[in-house]
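Teaching assistant here, posting this on the class forum so everyone can see the example we discussed in section. The complex has two components, and the goal was to see what a joint structure prediction looks like when all of them are supplied at once.
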Amino acid sequence: MQGELKSLNELVTGTHALIHHFSGGKEFKNRLLVLGFTIGTEVVVWQNFGSGPIIIAVKDSHVALGRGEAKKVIAEILS
Amino acid sequence: MTEQKQNFPVYSKKSINVALVGQPNVGKSTVFNMLTGLNQHVGNWPGKTVELKTGELVHNETLIHLVDLPGTYSLTANSEEERITRDFIIREKPDVVIAIVNAAMLERNLYLVAELLALDVPFVLGLNMVDVANQQGLRIEVNVLEAALRVPVVPVIASKNQGLFELIDAAQNLAESPIPLAPNRPDIRPEHRPVLEEICSLITGQVPQPYHVDWVALKLLEGDSEVMEMVEQAAPKAWPRIQTLLSQHEDAILDITGGRYEWIARMVRVAIVRPRPGTIVLTDRLDRIATHPFWGLVLLLGILGIVFWLTYHVAMPIVEWLDSALIIPLADVVSIALANAPLWFSRLVVDGLIGGVGTVLTFLPILIVFFTVLGILEDIGYLTRAAYMMDRFMHWMGLHGRSFLPLFLGFGCNVPAVMGTRIVEDRRARLLTILLVPLVPCAARLAVVSFLTPAFFGTGAALVTWLLVIGNLTLLVLVGIAINRLLFKGAHTAFIMEIPLYHAPNVRTIGLYVWQNTLAFLKKAGVLIVIVSAIIWAFSWLPDGNINNSLMAGLGRWLEPLGRLMGLKDWRLIVALLTSFVAKENTIATLGVLYGISNQSVGLAARVGATLTPAAGLSFLVVQMLFIPCVATVAVIKQETNSWKWTAFSVGLLLTISLIAGVGVYQLAVLMNWGV
């Protein structure tokens, strides 16, 4: 039962989702992995006002992502 | 167990080398500051722009050399900080590494620990901010964590100076203990074990000292560019095969990082007691305002307003007091003392040197106010919120939110603005920010403009001033876009930034931050400012002591043809611009001397205005607003970029821009038959 796949920037505040894959380059991917965005990790969209950067809660911490960066992280929505 | 080693005679002072590592926002600097106090040296890593902090303390009659390694999230060669940290641990082999973690973010912080353990160094874990974790409802069982990791774990509250003695004790015991630690280490997932083994066998015996084969193989599999280069050179025969293996396992990094986090989860599973879900902590409540698209902006502008209020109402009175209580009496005393010396010598000392020292002193109160505010905002965790708020606006120049603050501070004074770019971590973005700072009109330039515009434009003065400021900022955006496209090939710094928890500011950390930044300015920029002031003084004195016949005047006359293109037919205006290099407000003083009118008098502006057509007046003001930065700014640009090339580029860039803008404005006015 797989949930819907969406970019992080498309998820509204409060959504819980599992990291599915990245569409960015190697260095971009590495930086996010190190911060805890490993495949299958549950994240929560902490703040997304529809424009500008967003904040994601991951592994006890909060990480701000630019809108362009958030677009490159694909996650599976948990209902 | 801690028997004394034989090679240490009892009377000799023992010493050990300890390295402090940790991810950003774990309070590592607080630990370092609490341990070493003023007993620390701040410099740069050889050939790098990354700060190197070392310090000493004596503990149980042992001298402890402490190195504060740069804060890094991991040990992959993604950034200069990461390279410095891992090279130091591998090559310098400190006796003990103390890793500081934030108890409130244990899992994420242990990632660096997972990487450190692979380096096989004696290792102590400092569990910091235990109080913050407790406030959040997190409980950490230290003994359980210690048993799981099989390394010493010491709970610490650095900001309250609790547990630091025990932390150093543990490090010292470990350094002197003959029994090596056998820590629990993360293992690679089974599906990648065969390829890791094959790489190991391919490079065995070919890895340069002091690197370990296992570690190098793991880093290859992670796709670490620096290690790949190293192996390509060290093992050219095996390289093609390694390359094939690596391209077949390009996704190994996902598994390796995932594996490390799984290992961490196993380590902490029984050690952490979490709060019930849905607990709303103070940080969340504050962030409802601080990161809100509207209220966050209001808050940010309010804070910036306070900074400028403090500059004008606290720093400036101190500057004036220093001038009247210190510099002027000093100049008087020295003048009298040198009454019998040759006139040129006494003028050089009084006008050149003491004048230069006065300029340096002028900046001190301003710098202290700016760095205190910046230090507080950084320490409580607000700066990252400000960066988050401004990110959308800084985007077009390839910069991210962090660059906003130093640029905005430039309105007060460009000097702390350039130094303030230290908060921008990315080197390219930081350099671009430094290059853009001088385009922000500082208070001194605005003062010159507000002094002259009423005489030049009468009732239109406010509008002209406003247009000049808008013009500068428009140019800033255009130049930013252009430099980013042309020099940095449109590179864009990915905006990925941790938002730390808010916490109470630590007086010692902020005090040391202000002290170190101010000291750096005095030591590096201060000397340069005094020297250049003396040289400029010499130019306006030689050969006969009359500025009208001086070398500076000669230069002004020689540049007259260029001035004419801008409508400036009088060499005195050019000299006024040239002397603004020492300090922007000098423009007025020089005009006063050259036109023979005291600069206090309102008549000066009117007199200068009378010699200029409105078009020429406008072009003069445009050049004044954009001209090469003052010597103090140039000195800190050199200090912060650590490069004469970029300093020269900055000066050349502004010289070109200001001249083109001046000529352009005047010629356009002539073409449109306005104000000529």
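For the discussion questions: Strands of chain B lie at 14-22, 40-44, 51-59, 62-68, 96-102, 123-128, 139-140, 153-155, 272-273, 496-499. The interface with chain A takes residues 73-74, 76, 78, 104-108, 111, 222-223, 253-254, 257-258, 261, 287, 291, 293, 384, 387-388, 391-392, 395, 400-401, 492, 494-499 of chain B (CB under 8 Å). Think about how each of these relates to the inputs above.
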